[in-house]
Amino acid sequence: MEILKQYLQTSMELKSILEEEITFTEQDHYLENVEYLIAKRQSYLNGFPDLSSLEPSVKEEIIKLERDIKTLIDTKKTKIQNNLKILQVKKKKKNQYSNPYGDVSIDGMFLDKKK
To answer: Which of 4, 33, 39, 103 is 20 to 30 Å from 72 by CA-CA measure?
Structure first.
């Protein structure tokens, strides 16, 4: 059951990383670490023997750990999506400020024919 111990250790490490607060500048490095740990856990899952042979207490621990990790990943995902939305709005506002007439449509433009 060495694979199970490694899986649980990697899961606990992933959970602790997900519980940390990150800044916007550290976001890329943070996501790389999370992706690495998820891939590592997946490789352990592929090597698992039959899970029905595990003790019920171990199964419950794994289920609780998976639920915690899923909720943490979902909250981080929403935070990152919000950061991206804010970044896009800032970029749009900056472009509007630097070129205020850039997005004006010419449809319905009034031309004065008098001289």
So the answer is: 4
